Amino acid sequence: MKELEQRILKDGRSLPGGILKVDNFINHQMDGDLMCACAREIVRLFKAEGFTKVLTVEASGIAPSIFAGYLAHIPVVFAKKATPKTLDGKFVTKVHSFTKDRDYDIIVSKEYLSKGDKVLFIDDFLACGNAGMGIVDLCRQAGAELVGMAFLVEKAFQGGRRLILKHMPSLRIESLAVISALGDGTISFAE
Amino acid sequence: MKELEQRILKDGRSLPGGILKVDNFINHQMDGDLMCACAREIVRLFKAEGFTKVLTVEASGIAPSIFAGYLAHIPVVFAKKATPKTLDGKFVTKVHSFTKDRDYDIIVSKEYLSKGDKVLFIDDFLACGNAGMGIVDLCRQAGAELVGMAFLVEKAFQGGRRLILKHMPSLRIESLAVISALGDGTISFAE
Fold it and tell me: Is the whole-model pTM more than 0.95?
Protein backbone atom coordinates (compact mmCIF):
# COMPACT_ATOMS: atom_id res chain seq x y z
CA MET A 1 0.00 0.00 0.00
CA LYS A 2 1.76 3.10 -1.32
CA GLU A 3 0.34 5.50 1.28
CA LEU A 4 1.73 3.43 4.16
CA GLU A 5 5.13 2.88 2.48
CA GLN A 6 5.49 6.60 1.86
CA ARG A 7 4.61 7.38 5.47
CA ILE A 8 7.18 4.84 6.70
CA LEU A 9 9.85 6.47 4.52
CA LYS A 10 8.84 9.95 5.73
CA ASP A 11 8.35 9.33 9.46
CA GLY A 12 9.80 5.88 10.24
CA ARG A 13 13.34 5.35 11.51
CA SER A 14 15.57 2.32 11.15
CA LEU A 15 17.28 1.62 14.48
CA PRO A 16 20.09 -0.83 15.32
CA GLY A 17 18.96 -4.42 15.92
CA GLY A 18 16.39 -4.66 13.13
CA ILE A 19 13.98 -2.27 14.82
CA LEU A 20 11.71 -0.01 12.79
CA LYS A 21 10.54 2.93 14.89
CA VAL A 22 7.08 4.00 13.73
CA ASP A 23 5.78 5.24 17.05
CA ASN A 24 4.79 8.65 15.73
CA PHE A 25 1.97 7.28 13.55
CA ILE A 26 1.35 3.59 14.42
CA ASN A 27 2.23 2.34 17.88
CA HIS A 28 2.37 5.19 20.37
CA GLN A 29 1.09 8.26 18.58
CA MET A 30 -1.46 7.10 15.98
CA ASP A 31 -2.80 8.64 12.78
CA GLY A 32 -6.52 7.85 12.62
CA ASP A 33 -6.85 8.69 8.93
CA LEU A 34 -3.99 6.35 8.03
CA MET A 35 -5.30 3.59 10.33
CA CYS A 36 -8.72 3.85 8.66
CA ALA A 37 -7.18 3.72 5.19
CA CYS A 38 -5.17 0.62 6.15
CA ALA A 39 -8.28 -1.06 7.57
CA ARG A 40 -10.20 -0.28 4.38
CA GLU A 41 -7.50 -2.03 2.34
CA ILE A 42 -7.47 -5.04 4.70
CA VAL A 43 -11.26 -5.41 4.51
CA ARG A 44 -11.05 -5.20 0.71
CA LEU A 45 -8.33 -7.88 0.59
CA PHE A 46 -10.16 -10.33 2.86
CA LYS A 47 -13.79 -9.61 2.02
CA ALA A 48 -14.16 -12.83 0.00
CA GLU A 49 -13.01 -14.95 2.96
CA GLY A 50 -16.27 -14.18 4.79
CA PHE A 51 -14.65 -13.44 8.16
CA THR A 52 -17.11 -12.98 11.03
CA LYS A 53 -14.72 -11.74 13.70
CA VAL A 54 -11.60 -9.60 13.87
CA LEU A 55 -9.04 -10.71 16.44
CA THR A 56 -6.06 -8.63 17.53
CA VAL A 57 -3.65 -8.27 20.45
CA GLU A 58 -3.51 -5.25 22.72
CA ALA A 59 -2.41 -2.55 22.26
CA SER A 60 -1.06 -1.49 18.85
CA GLY A 61 -3.32 -3.83 16.89
CA ILE A 62 -6.48 -2.24 18.20
CA ALA A 63 -6.54 0.89 16.03
CA PRO A 64 -6.54 -0.79 12.58
CA SER A 65 -8.74 -3.60 13.92
CA ILE A 66 -11.52 -1.40 15.26
CA PHE A 67 -11.74 0.41 11.92
CA ALA A 68 -11.89 -2.97 10.13
CA GLY A 69 -14.70 -4.07 12.46
CA TYR A 70 -16.49 -0.78 11.87
CA LEU A 71 -16.16 -0.99 8.10
CA ALA A 72 -17.23 -4.66 7.95
CA HIS A 73 -19.79 -4.32 10.81
CA ILE A 74 -18.43 -7.28 12.72
CA PRO A 75 -17.15 -7.60 16.31
CA VAL A 76 -13.49 -7.04 17.20
CA VAL A 77 -11.84 -8.97 20.03
CA PHE A 78 -8.48 -8.02 21.46
CA ALA A 79 -6.41 -10.65 23.25
CA LYS A 80 -5.31 -9.34 26.63
CA LYS A 81 -1.92 -9.45 28.31
CA ALA A 82 -3.36 -9.54 31.86
CA THR A 83 -6.49 -11.16 33.24
CA PRO A 84 -9.08 -8.74 34.61
CA LYS A 85 -11.37 -9.66 37.50
CA THR A 86 -14.40 -9.83 35.23
CA LEU A 87 -13.04 -12.67 33.09
CA ASP A 88 -14.08 -16.24 33.88
CA GLY A 89 -13.21 -19.03 31.41
CA LYS A 90 -10.31 -18.24 29.12
CA PHE A 91 -7.92 -19.53 26.49
CA VAL A 92 -4.27 -18.75 27.26
CA THR A 93 -1.08 -19.03 25.23
CA LYS A 94 2.50 -17.83 25.66
CA VAL A 95 4.10 -15.28 23.33
CA HIS A 96 7.60 -13.83 23.12
CA SER A 97 7.80 -10.11 22.40
CA PHE A 98 10.69 -9.12 20.14
CA THR A 99 10.62 -5.38 20.94
CA LYS A 100 10.09 -5.84 24.68
CA ASP A 101 12.33 -8.92 24.92
CA ARG A 102 10.18 -10.93 27.32
CA ASP A 103 7.56 -13.69 27.40
CA TYR A 104 3.96 -12.97 28.30
CA ASP A 105 0.60 -14.71 28.22
CA ILE A 106 -2.13 -13.58 25.88
CA ILE A 107 -5.67 -14.36 26.91
CA VAL A 108 -9.07 -14.50 25.24
CA SER A 109 -12.33 -15.15 27.06
CA LYS A 110 -14.13 -18.35 26.05
CA GLU A 111 -17.19 -16.12 25.60
CA TYR A 112 -15.66 -14.31 22.63
CA LEU A 113 -13.83 -16.96 20.64
CA SER A 114 -15.53 -20.20 19.71
CA LYS A 115 -16.33 -22.80 17.11
CA GLY A 116 -18.20 -21.15 14.26
CA ASP A 117 -16.09 -17.97 14.32
CA LYS A 118 -14.28 -17.21 11.07
CA VAL A 119 -11.36 -15.18 12.37
CA LEU A 120 -9.28 -12.51 10.64
CA PHE A 121 -6.23 -11.64 12.75
CA ILE A 122 -4.97 -8.06 12.38
CA ASP A 123 -1.82 -6.64 13.96
CA ASP A 124 0.60 -3.79 13.43
CA PHE A 125 3.76 -5.88 12.87
CA LEU A 126 4.72 -9.27 11.47
CA ALA A 127 8.31 -9.82 12.62
CA CYS A 128 9.32 -13.17 14.09
CA GLY A 129 5.72 -14.37 13.97
CA ASN A 130 5.36 -15.04 17.70
CA ALA A 131 2.08 -13.18 18.20
CA GLY A 132 0.73 -14.83 15.06
CA MET A 133 1.66 -18.28 16.38
CA GLY A 134 -0.09 -17.41 19.64
CA ILE A 135 -3.22 -16.57 17.67
CA VAL A 136 -2.98 -19.86 15.75
CA ASP A 137 -2.91 -21.64 19.12
CA LEU A 138 -5.81 -19.65 20.63
CA CYS A 139 -7.99 -20.34 17.57
CA ARG A 140 -7.07 -24.03 17.71
CA GLN A 141 -7.99 -24.19 21.43
CA ALA A 142 -11.32 -22.49 20.70
CA GLY A 143 -12.08 -24.56 17.61
CA ALA A 144 -12.41 -21.30 15.65
CA GLU A 145 -11.47 -21.13 11.97
CA LEU A 146 -8.57 -18.78 11.21
CA VAL A 147 -9.24 -17.44 7.70
CA GLY A 148 -6.39 -14.97 7.39
CA MET A 149 -3.84 -12.65 8.90
CA ALA A 150 -3.29 -9.00 7.97
CA PHE A 151 -0.41 -6.85 9.10
CA LEU A 152 0.39 -3.20 8.56
CA VAL A 153 4.15 -3.81 8.36
CA GLU A 154 6.07 -7.02 7.73
CA LYS A 155 9.79 -7.28 8.42
CA ALA A 156 10.36 -10.05 5.88
CA PHE A 157 13.93 -10.69 7.03
CA GLN A 158 12.78 -11.91 10.46
CA GLY A 159 11.04 -15.02 9.20
CA GLY A 160 7.59 -14.66 10.76
CA ARG A 161 5.67 -15.53 7.60
CA ARG A 162 7.72 -18.70 7.08
CA LEU A 163 7.15 -19.80 10.71
CA ILE A 164 3.38 -19.33 10.52
CA LEU A 165 3.07 -20.98 7.10
CA LYS A 166 5.06 -23.98 8.37
CA HIS A 167 2.18 -24.61 10.79
CA MET A 168 -0.67 -23.47 8.52
CA PRO A 169 0.52 -23.85 4.90
CA SER A 170 -2.72 -22.66 3.30
CA LEU A 171 -3.25 -19.59 5.50
CA ARG A 172 -3.52 -16.33 3.63
CA ILE A 173 -1.19 -13.67 5.02
CA GLU A 174 -1.23 -10.10 3.69
CA SER A 175 1.01 -7.23 4.76
CA LEU A 176 0.41 -3.68 3.58
CA ALA A 177 4.11 -2.78 3.63
CA VAL A 178 6.78 -5.47 3.33
CA ILE A 179 10.26 -4.43 4.40
CA SER A 180 13.09 -6.46 2.91
CA ALA A 181 15.95 -4.82 4.78
CA LEU A 182 16.67 -2.24 7.45
CA GLY A 183 20.12 -0.73 7.13
CA ASP A 184 21.99 2.03 8.91
CA GLY A 185 19.25 4.63 8.61
CA THR A 186 17.84 3.05 5.43
CA ILE A 187 14.54 1.25 4.85
CA SER A 188 14.06 -1.02 1.79
CA PHE A 189 10.73 -2.43 0.64
CA ALA A 190 10.25 -5.77 -1.11
CA GLU A 191 9.35 -5.53 -4.82
CA MET B 1 -26.14 9.09 25.43
CA LYS B 2 -29.21 6.92 25.04
CA GLU B 3 -27.64 4.41 22.63
CA LEU B 4 -24.86 3.59 25.08
CA GLU B 5 -27.19 3.40 28.10
CA GLN B 6 -29.50 1.02 26.26
CA ARG B 7 -26.58 -1.19 25.26
CA ILE B 8 -25.34 -1.28 28.86
CA LEU B 9 -28.80 -2.35 30.03
CA LYS B 10 -29.01 -4.98 27.27
CA ASP B 11 -25.49 -6.46 27.39
CA GLY B 12 -23.83 -5.19 30.60
CA ARG B 13 -23.82 -7.11 33.85
CA SER B 14 -23.58 -5.83 37.40
CA LEU B 15 -21.13 -8.00 39.36
CA PRO B 16 -20.36 -8.04 43.10
CA GLY B 17 -17.84 -5.42 44.24
CA GLY B 18 -19.11 -2.52 42.14
CA ILE B 19 -17.94 -4.05 38.88
CA LEU B 20 -19.79 -3.43 35.62
CA LYS B 21 -18.97 -6.13 33.09
CA VAL B 22 -19.17 -4.66 29.58
CA ASP B 23 -16.54 -6.83 27.96
CA ASN B 24 -18.79 -7.97 25.14
CA PHE B 25 -18.96 -4.53 23.51
CA ILE B 26 -16.37 -2.20 25.15
CA ASN B 27 -13.29 -3.70 26.74
CA HIS B 28 -12.56 -7.16 25.34
CA GLN B 29 -14.94 -7.68 22.45
CA MET B 30 -15.66 -4.26 20.93
CA ASP B 31 -18.48 -2.90 18.79
CA GLY B 32 -16.95 -0.59 16.19
CA ASP B 33 -20.22 1.07 15.27
CA LEU B 34 -20.94 1.92 18.90
CA MET B 35 -17.36 3.10 19.51
CA CYS B 36 -17.61 5.39 16.49
CA ALA B 37 -20.96 6.78 17.66
CA CYS B 38 -19.50 7.47 21.12
CA ALA B 39 -16.47 9.21 19.59
CA ARG B 40 -18.75 11.34 17.42
CA GLU B 41 -20.60 12.52 20.52
CA ILE B 42 -17.34 13.22 22.39
CA VAL B 43 -15.97 15.27 19.49
CA ARG B 44 -19.27 17.21 19.36
CA LEU B 45 -19.14 17.92 23.11
CA PHE B 46 -15.52 19.12 23.12
CA LYS B 47 -15.23 20.74 19.70
CA ALA B 48 -15.32 24.26 21.15
CA GLU B 49 -12.35 23.52 23.43
CA GLY B 50 -10.04 23.41 20.40
CA PHE B 51 -8.18 20.26 21.45
CA THR B 52 -5.16 19.40 19.31
CA LYS B 53 -4.36 15.95 20.67
CA VAL B 54 -6.30 12.98 22.03
CA LEU B 55 -4.61 11.15 24.88
CA THR B 56 -5.72 7.77 26.19
CA VAL B 57 -4.32 4.77 28.09
CA GLU B 58 -3.87 1.32 26.59
CA ALA B 59 -5.84 -0.76 25.93
CA SER B 60 -9.60 -0.15 26.27
CA GLY B 61 -9.37 3.59 25.68
CA ILE B 62 -7.87 3.15 22.22
CA ALA B 63 -11.04 2.26 20.30
CA PRO B 64 -13.10 5.37 21.09
CA SER B 65 -9.96 7.54 20.96
CA ILE B 66 -8.85 6.51 17.47
CA PHE B 67 -12.32 7.26 16.12
CA ALA B 68 -12.22 10.67 17.82
CA GLY B 69 -8.82 11.35 16.27
CA TYR B 70 -10.13 10.23 12.89
CA LEU B 71 -13.26 12.39 13.11
CA ALA B 72 -11.35 15.47 14.32
CA HIS B 73 -8.25 14.75 12.16
CA ILE B 74 -5.84 15.09 15.04
CA PRO B 75 -3.21 12.69 16.44
CA VAL B 76 -4.03 10.17 19.17
CA VAL B 77 -1.44 9.14 21.76
CA PHE B 78 -1.89 6.18 24.03
CA ALA B 79 0.00 6.05 27.32
CA LYS B 80 1.81 2.73 27.63
CA LYS B 81 2.04 0.35 30.55
CA ALA B 82 5.49 -0.98 29.59
CA THR B 83 8.48 0.76 28.00
CA PRO B 84 9.44 -0.54 24.56
CA LYS B 85 13.04 -0.54 23.34
CA THR B 86 12.32 2.24 20.85
CA LEU B 87 11.36 4.81 23.49
CA ASP B 88 13.96 7.30 24.71
CA GLY B 89 12.88 10.21 26.91
CA LYS B 90 9.60 9.68 28.71
CA PHE B 91 7.17 11.00 31.28
CA VAL B 92 6.14 8.40 33.89
CA THR B 93 3.47 8.33 36.56
CA LYS B 94 2.02 5.64 38.83
CA VAL B 95 -1.61 4.51 38.59
CA HIS B 96 -3.68 2.05 40.63
CA SER B 97 -5.99 -0.20 38.62
CA PHE B 98 -9.32 -0.86 40.34
CA THR B 99 -10.29 -3.88 38.19
CA LYS B 100 -6.83 -5.45 38.19
CA ASP B 101 -6.06 -4.46 41.80
CA ARG B 102 -2.44 -3.47 41.28
CA ASP B 103 -0.20 -0.45 40.71
CA TYR B 104 1.48 0.14 37.40
CA ASP B 105 3.39 2.89 35.63
CA ILE B 106 1.96 4.66 32.63
CA ILE B 107 4.42 6.19 30.21
CA VAL B 108 4.32 8.76 27.42
CA SER B 109 7.26 9.63 25.21
CA LYS B 110 8.50 13.21 25.50
CA GLU B 111 8.24 13.29 21.70
CA TYR B 112 4.44 13.06 21.78
CA LEU B 113 3.33 15.21 24.70
CA SER B 114 4.63 18.73 25.12
CA LYS B 115 3.96 22.38 25.83
CA GLY B 116 1.53 23.69 23.24
CA ASP B 117 -0.61 20.52 23.14
CA LYS B 118 -4.25 21.03 24.05
CA VAL B 119 -5.14 17.58 25.33
CA LEU B 120 -8.48 15.80 25.43
CA PHE B 121 -8.23 12.64 27.54
CA ILE B 122 -10.58 9.81 26.52
CA ASP B 123 -11.04 6.52 28.36
CA ASP B 124 -13.63 3.78 28.71
CA PHE B 125 -14.28 4.12 32.46
CA LEU B 126 -14.24 6.82 35.11
CA ALA B 127 -14.34 4.94 38.42
CA CYS B 128 -11.99 5.97 41.24
CA GLY B 129 -10.26 8.47 38.95
CA ASN B 130 -6.78 6.98 39.23
CA ALA B 131 -6.04 6.86 35.50
CA GLY B 132 -7.41 10.41 35.19
CA MET B 133 -5.10 11.62 37.98
CA GLY B 134 -2.19 9.94 36.18
CA ILE B 135 -3.07 11.89 33.04
CA VAL B 136 -3.25 15.15 35.03
CA ASP B 137 0.28 14.41 36.27
CA LEU B 138 1.66 13.47 32.81
CA CYS B 139 0.25 16.67 31.29
CA ARG B 140 1.68 18.72 34.15
CA GLN B 141 5.13 17.13 33.66
CA ALA B 142 4.96 17.85 29.92
CA GLY B 143 3.61 21.40 30.33
CA ALA B 144 0.66 20.41 28.12
CA GLU B 145 -2.76 21.96 28.62
CA LEU B 146 -5.46 19.48 29.61
CA VAL B 147 -8.70 20.87 28.15
CA GLY B 148 -11.09 18.06 29.06
CA MET B 149 -11.81 14.45 29.90
CA ALA B 150 -14.39 12.23 28.23
CA PHE B 151 -15.45 8.79 29.41
CA LEU B 152 -17.81 6.24 27.97
CA VAL B 153 -19.03 5.09 31.38
CA GLU B 154 -18.80 6.81 34.77
CA LYS B 155 -19.45 4.93 37.99
CA ALA B 156 -20.50 8.03 39.92
CA PHE B 157 -20.54 6.23 43.27
CA GLN B 158 -16.77 5.62 43.18
CA GLY B 159 -15.79 9.28 43.46
CA GLY B 160 -13.44 9.68 40.51
CA ARG B 161 -14.97 12.93 39.28
CA ARG B 162 -14.69 14.48 42.75
CA LEU B 163 -11.03 13.43 43.08
CA ILE B 164 -10.04 14.91 39.71
CA LEU B 165 -12.01 18.14 40.24
CA LYS B 166 -10.34 18.59 43.64
CA HIS B 167 -7.04 18.93 41.76
CA MET B 168 -8.40 20.70 38.65
CA PRO B 169 -11.63 22.50 39.68
CA SER B 170 -12.31 24.04 36.29
CA LEU B 171 -11.68 20.91 34.19
CA ARG B 172 -14.58 19.85 32.00
CA ILE B 173 -15.47 16.17 32.48
CA GLU B 174 -18.14 14.49 30.35
CA SER B 175 -19.34 10.90 30.59
CA LEU B 176 -21.68 9.41 28.02
CA ALA B 177 -23.37 7.10 30.55
CA VAL B 178 -23.37 7.92 34.25
CA ILE B 179 -24.19 5.04 36.58
CA SER B 180 -25.53 6.04 39.99
CA ALA B 181 -25.74 2.56 41.48
CA LEU B 182 -24.95 -1.08 40.72
CA GLY B 183 -27.15 -3.47 42.67
CA ASP B 184 -27.58 -7.21 42.73
CA GLY B 185 -28.00 -7.62 38.99
CA THR B 186 -29.39 -4.10 38.56
CA ILE B 187 -27.89 -1.04 36.86
CA SER B 188 -29.20 2.47 37.62
CA PHE B 189 -28.32 5.59 35.64
CA ALA B 190 -28.11 9.11 37.07
CA GLU B 191 -30.93 11.45 36.01
Answer: yes
Mind listing the pLDDT tens digit of every residue in chain A (191 residues)? 999 999 999 999 999 988 999 999 999 999 999 999 999 999 999 999 999 999 999 999 999 999 999 999 999 999 999 777 777 799 999 998 866 778 999 999 999 999 999 999 999 999 999 999 999 999 999 999 999 999 999 999 999 999 999 999 999 999 999 999 999 989 999 98
Chain B: residues touching A (Cβ < 8 Å): 15, 17, 19, 21, 23-24, 27-33, 35-36, 58-59, 62-63, 66-71, 73, 75-78, 80, 82, 84-87, 99-101, 108-109, 111-112
Residue closest to A134 by CA, chosen among A163, A175, A176: A163
CATH of residue A164's domain is: 3.40.50.2020
Q: DSSP states of A132-178 as a string?
A: HHHHHHHHHHHT-EEEEEEEEEEEGGG-HHHHHHHH-TT--EEEEEE
Q: How many CB atoms lie within 10 A of CB A189?
A: 13
| Contact (CB<8Å) A66/B30 | yes
Which chain A positions have a beta carbon within 8 Å of B108's beta carbon? 28
Q: Which residues constitute the domain of residue A64?
A: 2-189
CA distance B134 to B167: 12
Structural domains counted in chain B: 1
